[in-house]
Amino acid sequence: DGSSPTLTDCTFTNNSADEDGGGMYNLESSSPALTRCTFTENSAEYGGGMTNAGSSSPTLDNCTFTSNSVEFNGGGMYNLDGSSPILTGCMFMENSATGFDSTGAGMYNGAGSSPDLTDCTFASNSSVFGGGMYNELSSATLISCAFTSNSADSGGGMYNNAGSSPTLTGCTFASNSADFGRGGGMWNYQSTPTLTDC
After folding, report:
1. Taking the CB of the first residue and of the last residue of the chain, which one, N or C, has fewer CB atoms within 10 A?
2. What's the CA angle centered on 19, arms 17 and 22, to 5 degrees?
3. Residue range 64-79, pLDDT digits in tens
4. Alpha carbon 120 to chain centroid distance?
């Protein structure tokens, strides 16, 4: 809460929270720096691996989020309230959001949160909406990111909702699926993404 620790080569495994942030919860402008950290099999209602709220914007370098789960939003990471983390070389794999209308198994960005992602991978994540990433009122920036084999009812790779304007450059969408037949790679509703060299 209003704190910015530095963590290197740390592991968060099999932790749980009744509400937010199974592995880590950052609140009120907390901006920790994480390098080569791993979040595995953590669970919560929101943000199985990590929740960032209250303009908290951590920096993550070569971190991995694997097999984290939530009932509602953000299996790997849940960003809200203007929290915009910076991620480089991070991986989100096999995270899940299992509840009714669940969103963003890999990452959920909402309420003015617009993270910057470079060289990040979203693979084999699954939820009802936005298997890899779900954006709502968000303008995330993604450079050289890959979305592979993610699944959802709509928006297998990415779901952009309610005025989201993400910018994607040099990104790849491959082998993602939408069970309801809407947006295997990407689904856009009232949103205006910009894609270059994808």
Report:
1. N
2. 35
3. 999 999 999 999 999 9
4. 11
Contact 149, 123 (CB under 8 A): yes
Residue 171, both tokens = 């990104």
Residues near 82 by beta carbon (within 8 Å), at least 6 away in sequence: 54, 55, 111, 112, 113
How many whole angstroms separate alpha carbon 53 and alpha carbon 157?
24
Q: Are 3 and 29 in contact (CB under 8 A)?
A: no
Nearest CA to 129 out of 152, 96, 106, 162 is that of 152
- Nearest alpha-carbon partner for 48 in 74, 27, 25, 30: 74
Q: Could you tell me how far CA 73 lies from the centroid of its own chain? A: 9
Residue 123, amino acid? A
Counted residue by residue, the chain has a size of 198
